[in-house]
Amino acid sequence: MPNIAQISAPLARFALRRPVTVCMIFLSFLLLGLISSRLLPLEKFPGIEIPQIAVVVPYPGATPAEVERLITRPLEEALATIGGLNEIRSDSSDNQAQIVLDFNWNDSISARGIEVREAIDSVRHTLPSDVERVFVYQFNTDDMAVMQLRISSDRDLSMAYDLINRNLKQPLERVPGVSRVQLYGVDQPEIMIRLDPVAMAASQLSASDVTHILNQANFTLSAGYVESTTERIQVKPVGEFRSLDDIRRLPVTRHLTLADIATIGYELPKPRAGRHFNQTYAIGIDIFKDSSANLVDVARLASAVIAQADGSPEFAGIYLMTMDNTAESVTTSLNDLLSAGLIGAVLSIIVLYLFIRDWRATLIIVVSVPIAIFLTLGVMYLLGYSLNILSMMGLMLAVGMLIDNAVVVSESIKHEQQEAIERGETPDSRTIELGTSRVSLAIIAGTLTTAIVFLPNIFGEKQEITIFLEHVAVAICISLLTSLLIAQTLIPLLMSKLTAKANPQGSQPGRIKRAYLRSLRWSHRHPRWTTLIMLVIVASTALPFSQVSGDQTETAFNDRLFLNYFVTGQYTLEQVERDVTAMENYLYANKDTFELEHVYSYYTPGYAISILMLKEDRSLSVTEIQRRIRADMPPLARSRPVFGFRGGNSGGVQLTLQGRSTAELEQVAEQLIPMLERIDGLADVQTASRQALDEMRVTIDRTQAERFGLSSQAVAEQISVALRGRNLRSFRHHPEGDMRIQLTFPDSVQQNYREFETMIIGQHNGQWVTLNQVATIERIPQLGTIRRVDRQTAVRITANLEELSMSDARTQLSALLNAIELPAGVQWSLDGGFRTQQQQNQLMLVNMLLAIALVYMVMAALFESLLLPSAVIGSLLMAICGAFWGLMFTGTNLDIMALIGLLILMGIVVNNGIVLVDAVNQQRDAGMELEQALLEASSRRVRPILMTVATTVLGMLPLALGSNQIGGDGPPYAPMAITIISGLIVSTVTSLYFVPHAYSRLLAWRAYWAGVWQHARYPLQRKAL
């Protein structure tokens, strides 16, 4: 055993000999913390790269089969060659292809993004020529909008683009810290050129001819330089349109202008999506901030701009509603944490005083908390971390533990001072140094074991939970290390300024100590009974372990529900809007019953979602509101409404079927859905894909087309322009900026089947040639969406859980699917919530085992013993037992927050055992017998142990009893706090007996086996003796 006095005596000695220097050092720490608290970026979540890249390729007017064949498959083959790819998923639908690539959390997504773009470029030439752009999206938490504004009015807002852009969007873009402002739901007018098929046929012009003429007439080109002996001048030929009349007067033949064969004017683009807010059409504005900007400052300045616009005469009759304000949720969450922390701190101070009965000594211990917090903020700023709800959670968890080291050191100093007084000596600086050094090893080991449990999460395998835990861990580790520094320096210095007195207290703490020593003597003298009691306590964990659910705790205080509409066919935007309107009418007719505040809806021809904003003072839980809404939900003609999570169903369960063809998998899914619906607790069972759509297939007869003097390419081009339109070079001389130019045909061609098939496409021998004369037009069914997972066709069945645990759902689904004989080549897997929960639980379990191993190694190194740490590690079993009993009594699930609580608990509970083992070692080194050493050490340490546990428990109590959630709408803190409190209480009570008992038993076993070993090595010598 090393000389303990040498470990921290230099720090305490320096503090006692240079008090002014130490005070100035800590004053500078305070100043650093105060400055850093203003400079630290304030945000909801830290900037984290999500290991996912999405590739989106718009291809309007194409069928899903065409999109899959022409776009999805070539891109998948190229992207599949990228290393480190976990999964590749694709959706081929009408109008676009979407491919999602999942990578490891350890990967650099910026570097992967470059690889993705290079892979796309390698096959870009194989994609259709009319694919204009390929979008590659990377995801970062900094990319989330900080504010979402919705604009509605009883008046028509379709022509309000200039009003909103000039009075709201542009002023918001000028707010310091705002990176961009996105306006949607109202568009800038564009120049629409609508070709007359009759006039075009009469003039012998095709759509491709007109496209070529327009592009040739609207250009800007850098042609080089003219150089002379005195100057060098750049030459730039300009042929841009400068007015609408320039476009109308554009010659298309020798005798005709564009106005002779087309109508040209300003039109609003055809909407591809719509929004409702409180049953009226709505416009949306999303505000994004710079990554380095302060969230609260940006939101405050943006809110001022919004308020100014709202009060202007131009916005009379227009309603502006801030639907999402991240700053408000962050501020609310931080205030909740702060108030919980203050309540816990006040309770801890009261408990400390009840133990110490000295306000000056109590304040000396308490003063270590703000100093440690300010120092932590300074270090976080220097390390580049931000102040967010995760780091604040770490600080909140650390508050109850920050005074532990100060309590242990101050109690040890007081004990040494008391002994000096009893010996008739005057306590001096050497007494304080001795008191500090006696517990130095214990507080170093305790601090390291608490901090080291987070190392697997910081440096181990990266998953979403460990990425976020890193920011919690950094705040806890820094604050604990600073509290260790304070306990070694500032606490001895401040304690030296107090006049040592004989112990004035002897009532309540004395009685507790005497009762504890009597029971400890009985425990030591009845080892078998003690062992039996401990085994019974550990075995009792089986009951709560079987009763506690492993599902995620329902966030019953969430203020929103997400109602997804899965469109079952091929419909127009107006038809889908009718379904949304019918649902909104039902919701508003029962607004009070469902406790709704607002309803916001977003819809497209293929999908829709309604966000139900609930009242803050509601009395119903989320589950009950969902049940009431489902009870009388009206049947919709074109869609299936189900509850989900933010436009998806990742919060529920997913059954993925993989096979050879989508049609076969859809048939299997339709057969499975009735079976799944019979499982009690499964709700909203459905396939995630759209039903079969109709495709109008135009087969061009080349022979017939050539007889009329037409090529197949010209006919196809004419159809494409008529239905899809053609984007031309922009008009750059409009006062409001660049304006799109669109070439198309009259709307009647797109809206009427008869108009389309009789569309005039040419003239031959004075007769009009129609489309149906050169082509066969037929309607055939097609797939709604073609989904692929890892380049295999897939169909997903989704469902929500109602009063059914995730584990029970997995068991019942697996039993059902195993009992069914699926067609050859069809495979199934459980994804969604199953996969997320399994990955999180497995990772947390591995990290917990690693944490236990690291804690053991730290204690073995500090105690210089492989045996003694086992006495402390055993207290972890008691903590786990207490945690499960606490979860069962409170009806709390073992969710991810409870697992985090278990992880933190592992680092905390060993501290008591370390303090006891270290004290016993010191007494034995001083020559005491084992039983006396155990009693003396336990007598000395029981008070500081009870004090530190009481302050930690009371610091967590507001979180355990409150309704605070991460970010205001995330997982609740209560499961984590309940786990820590219950585990710490049970572990403390049992460890006060278990650790001394285990210590004595381990030494007895070591002596026994040493004798056996000695006898085995020297049998003859022992026999002679």
From TrEMBL:
Full protein name: Efflux RND transporter permease subunit
Source organism of the structure: Aliidiomarina halalkaliphila
Pfam families: ACR_tran (PF00873)
MF (Gene Ontology): xenobiotic transmembrane transporter activity
Spans traversing the lipid bilayer: 20-40, 337-356, 363-383, 439-459, 465-487, 843-863, 870-890, 896-921, 942-961, 973-995
Keyword Transmembrane helix assigned: yes
Stored InterPro entries: AcrB_DN_DC_subdom, Acrflvin-R, SSD
PANTHER family tied to this protein: PTHR32063, RND SUPERFAMILY EFFLUX PUMP PERMEASE COMPONENT 1
GO cellular component: plasma membrane
PROSITE patterns, alphabetized: SSD
Alphabetical UniProt keywords: Membrane, Transmembrane, Transmembrane helix
Keyword Secreted: no
